[in-house]
Amino acid sequence: MAPLQDDKGTEVTEVSIPKRPISTVVFIIAMQTEASPLVEKFQLAQESNSVFPNGVPWVRYSGKYKDLNINIVSPGKDVVLGVDSVGTVSASLITYASIQALQPDLVINAGTAGGFKAKGACIGDVYLASDVAFHDRRIPIPVFDLYGVGTRQACSTPNLAKELNLKIGKLSTGDSLDMCPHDEKAIVANDATVKDMEGAAVAYVADLLKTPVIFLKAVTDIVDGDRPTPEEFLQNLAAVTAALDQAATRVVDYINGKNLSEL
């Protein structure tokens, strides 16, 4: 994980990058629809003996793929409403629990996102996020305002991005699927190409626990387009998830046998 910087650009944390090959990877994926193709692709099995607290709905799949121990962790279904537990709270909890229990060399937050045509995003594009920030934590007090935005950089992966020809863009995170005027202003300030509901929360926890993290986001809907976001999201979810699956597989194939400094 690249260092967090204060408002003067001073590095305030530092992550030691091990030289040994990456061994354990944890995918944090919010929705079961997004996770299922990768579970099948990597031939992972659902773990019945959970490393997580009793009673939580979190789901973990694990297995061996080439030389890597792959884990896919999802927050599962809301116990009352039965829908995917999307959003920053669930993402923070499962990221913390997964890092504590599994001690991964790398976390990959993979999922769908809205894209901005003004930044060149198109349906089906898969982005590797360079930076992540929140757009709905408004604290208009000096320094607290910077804390609210919570800008962090993803793990630097120039070789991976070049080899796989992945698009690069900034990611902005909030707990709403739609975009109110306040959020839009903050997203523009974040210079974001894509927006999601988990990334910055995963980044916060990964930074806290000194664990490298990268972000793969596939565009399901054009936020500044003409169609309603929910309608476009649902229509494109299955096809875009397939694109995400392909990109994630290529990333894992590239990571296999390499250490973090080679990415």
Q: Give the % helix.
A: 25-40%
Largest sheet: 5 strands, mixed, barrel
> Overall mean pLDDT score?
92
Biggest sheet strand line-up: 5-9-8-6-10
What is the number of helical segments per DSSP (H or I, 4+ residues)? Answer: 7
Helix and strand pattern: EHEEEHEEHEHEHEHEH
End-to-end gap = 12 Å
Strand content: 15-25%
Rg from C-alpha positions? 17 Å
**Structural class estimated from helices and strands:** alpha/beta
What shape does the CA trace take? globular
Unreliable residue stretches = none
Overall number of strands: 10
Keywords:
single chain, 263 residues, alpha/beta
Characterization of this structure:
A hairpin with a 2-residue loop joins strand 3 and strand 4. This protein starts with 23 loop residues before the first strand and ends in an 8-residue tail after the last helix. Helix 1 packs parallel to helix 7 (229-255) and helix 2 runs parallel beside helix 6. The protein has a five-stranded mixed β-barrel with strand order 5-9-8-6-10. The chain has helices at residues 32-41, 88-102, 144-149, 158-164, 181-189, 199-208, 229-255; strands at 24-28, 45-46, 59-65, 68-74, 106-115, 126-134, 152-153, 167-173, 194-196, 213-222. The chain is globular and about 45 Å long. The protein is built from seven helices and ten strands. Helix content is 32%, strand content 24%. By secondary structure, it is of the alpha/beta class.
Tell me briefly what this model is.
The protein is α/β, with parallel strands linked by helices and 263 residues long. Helices cover 32% and strands 24% of the residues. The chain has helices spanning 32-41, 88-102, 144-149, 158-164, 181-189, 199-208, 229-255, and strands at residues 24-28, 45-46, 59-65, 68-74, 106-115, 126-134, 152-153, 167-173, 194-196, 213-222.
